[in-house]
Amino acid sequence: MFALRTKRKMRKQTVKMVRKVTHRMAELFCGPGGLALGARLSNVRSKLNEYAIESVWANDIDENACRTYQHNLHPDKPKKVVCGSVESIDLQAVPKFDGLAFGFPCNDFSMVGKQKGIHGKFGPLYRFGVEMLNIHTPKWFLAENVTGLSNANNGATFAKIIGELESCGPVGYKLNVHEYRFEQYGVPQQRHRIIIVGIRSDLNKTFKVPAPLCLSKNDYVTARQAICIPPIASSVSNQELTRQSTQVVERLRHIKPGENAWTADLPDHLKLNVKGARLSNIYRRLDPNQPAYTVTGSGGGGTHIYHWRENRALTNRERARLQSFPDYYEFLGSKEDVRRQIGMAVPPMGAKVIFEALLKTFAGIPYECIDSNFSVE
Predict the structure, then answer these.
(1) SS3 call for 177
(2) Which one in 103, 187, 212, 320 has a CA-CA gap of 20 to 30 Å to 246?
(3) CA-to-CA distance for 224 and 291, rounded, in angstroms?
(4) What is the pTM of this model?
(5) Taking residues 12-36, what's their average pLDDT?
(6) Burial 163-179 (b: 16+ CB within 10 A, else e)
(7) d(CA 306, CA 198)
(8) Which structural domains are found in the chain, ordered by start?
(9) pLDDT of 225-249, one tens digit each?
(10) What is the per-residue pLDDT for 10?
(11) How far is CA 205 from CA 197, 209, 216, 351, 352, in A?
């Protein structure tokens, strides 16, 4: 009996010894919460400690994105999400945090558009992330943008941003810059983004790119797997169908999986009378045996992503699944507002892999990694 009590006491002591180490995260340009959800889902354990990330403050200018973030991530403390332009925020007053995340607006760096870069309306907004780092000097930061960032203004913009981020604060940051192909990390979508991870130089920690989870293309999660397994319940939010015109339905009947309006053999009366650029995602059906092509947040007719078998556009919930959002994550706003939020978000399951590698870096836990495809001199 005494031995049994002793064992129970030892178990309790062992449990008590596990200490939770939580990194507080602030976020600019938070959108509907893809990065924050990925951070929340990340969890790392060592023999003595459990490491996690907690969202403590976030900001975005989009009212419906802020409502979505509040509803899912801070339902009991909605004031942690501040809705308004970043220019109107008192950055000095942001609550104390250990890490900063900012997916600064990509409109001026995207391959689709005029690519005004740093001279556009949105291009200069990265500087608010720089200002936050200079004011608060957190332990780490994660910045995200489209791959077009590296080519904007013939590469000059990218070099300028990297230089400013490296020199933030009194001691600067050690950066890791990498183009992540999220389909390699279990996201059922060909979504490629530049992620910059910085760790404050005086901490003597070096972040490495986590190795892909999918070792070959045969391991990629396909569009069919994402949308059909498990089936989407009728009670799930954001599952409204889009009304398709008779002409669109007829056009889709002639487009095979993986084809678009330009590659399909369409009758003359269904062909598009478009001059100039012919975007490959116009009336493009998904290939059910491949990850989806990139989910976008806006666009006119023909850009809604189309089912491989049914003659219709995807629902927002199906798009959310391609972005790796769980079905319990409810997006608020009109159907078009929700579409924009989903398309602009960072895939949370891809973000989770990166955040867990960051936590392991601070915990001193080895993990499988690869070399970055960008060199920061």
Answers:
(1) strand
(2) 320
(3) 8
(4) 0.90
(5) 86
(6) eebbebbeebbbbbbbe
(7) 38
(8) 20-216+346-370 (3.40.50.150)
(9) 999 999 999 999 999 999 999 999 9
(10) 52
(11) 12, 13, 30, 20, 19
Strand 173-181 versus strand 19-28 pairing type = unpaired
Q: Which listed residue (83, 106, 214, 369) is catalytic?
A: 106
DSSP element (H, E) containing 12: helix 2-17
**What's the half-sphere exposure (Cβ side, CA atoms, 13 Å) at 70?**
18
Instruction: Please give the structure tokens belonging to residue 301.
Output: 């007719």
Instruction: Find how far residue 278's CA is from the centre of its chain.
Output: 27
Question: Is residue 13 within 8 Å of 43, Cβ to Cβ?
Answer: no
- How many Å apart are CA 37 and CA 346, to the nearest integer? 10
Distance CA 154, CA 344 (A): 25
Q: How many helices (H) and strands (E) does the chain have?
A: 10, 10
Q: What percent of the chain has pLDDT over 70?
A: 90
Reported as a single tens digit per residue, the pLDDT across 154-199 is: 788 889 999 999 999 999 999 999 999 999 999 999 999 999 999 9
Q: Would you call 180 helix, strand, or coil by DSSP?
A: strand
Any idea what DSSP says for residue 311? S
| Residue 30 bears catalytic tag | no
Reported in sequence order, the residue ranges of 218-274 that DSSP labels E, i.e. its strands, are none
Among 9-13, 62-66, 112-116, 256-260, the least confident range: 112-116
Residue type, 129: G
